[in-house]
Amino acid sequence: MDQPLQGKVAVVTGAGRNMGREEALALAGAGAKVVVNSKHSADATVADIRAMGGEAVPAVMDANSWAAGEAIVATAVEHFGRIDILVNNAGIHRPHSIESMTEEDWDAVVDVSLKCYAATIRFAAPHLIAQGDGGVIINTGSTSGLGHLSVANYSAAKEGVAGLTRTVARDLGKYGVRCNMIRPVSLVSDLLLPELVEAGAESRRRGFPSNGVRDFNFPKDFTPDGRQVAALVLLLCLPQAAHVSGQDFFVMGEEIGLYPEPEMRKLLREPGGWTLEALLRSETLAGLLGDIPNRYLA
């Protein structure tokens, strides 16, 4: 391909290594100037982009606060004069079952994996609106948001990203700015922590829904490759996806999927409003609760 993003400026958080690094490289390869955010490895990714003839600058800081979000976006505007693409990729794991999770575990994960997404969007949005030529926001969710053992903090943060994405798509759609979410499975060995592997095994023993990735029970031939995730990110930045916003994508290895927006399965109406007595009627119980399987209780 030519460089379809020539003249565009992209910000990628969590871009020092792994998937975020591959996303930054892909955007640079397509012609974008890139702000590489990472606390520890931003300079290495910037060097790789410059070595391939691209333009990039680092934003060396933790992506975990409103102030960080503002500073990351400011780096793009100060160095390149604008921002066109924002890829929120930063995230951390602190897996514990909910009964042993600490407040620090909760806050650390939510701050990086959700709060700073809102912050970067908050400070990018005025620029995207003022520029008047649209813009692209891509948020990194996770299938963990659909429910996985021992990651309540991460699950809450990542499913918060889903709601954030749908709302931002509605808020900014009138300005031509589109916002989508991806749920990538491109974990590498240092993220496949023993706690997560054991949680996946327990999920399978108890017959919980697989949520598309078999609770960390990856296929034997599965090779994590951030480049495949980066290809989807790149597509969502191109004119071919100009009509796509508020959507929820899955990507793992050779598979790409699209989740539907949540829809109500059932709707019962009671003239005059519901009382406990009305809810306890046998036909109401059957209609409301009758086909719900007991999946979660021992």
From TrEMBL:
<dbReference type="InterPro" id="IPR057326">
    <property type="entry name" value="KR_dom"/>
</dbReference>
<dbReference type="Pfam" id="PF00106">
    <property type="entry name" value="adh_short"/>
</dbReference>
<dbReference type="InterPro" id="IPR002347">
    <property type="entry name" value="SDR_fam"/>
</dbReference>
<comment type="similarity">
    <text>Belongs to the short-chain dehydrogenases/reductases (SDR) family.</text>
</comment>
<feature type="domain" description="Ketoreductase">
    <location>
        <begin position="8"/>
        <end position="185"/>
    </location>
</feature>
<dbReference type="GO" id="GO:0016491">
    <property type="term" value="F:oxidoreductase activity"/>
</dbReference>
<dbReference type="InterPro" id="IPR036291">
    <property type="entry name" value="NAD(P)-bd_dom_sf"/>
</dbReference>
<keyword id="KW-0560">Oxidoreductase</keyword>
<dbReference type="InterPro" id="IPR051687">
    <property type="entry name" value="Peroxisomal_Beta-Oxidation"/>
</dbReference>
<protein>
    <submittedName>
        <fullName>SDR family NAD(P)-dependent oxidoreductase</fullName>
    </submittedName>
</protein>
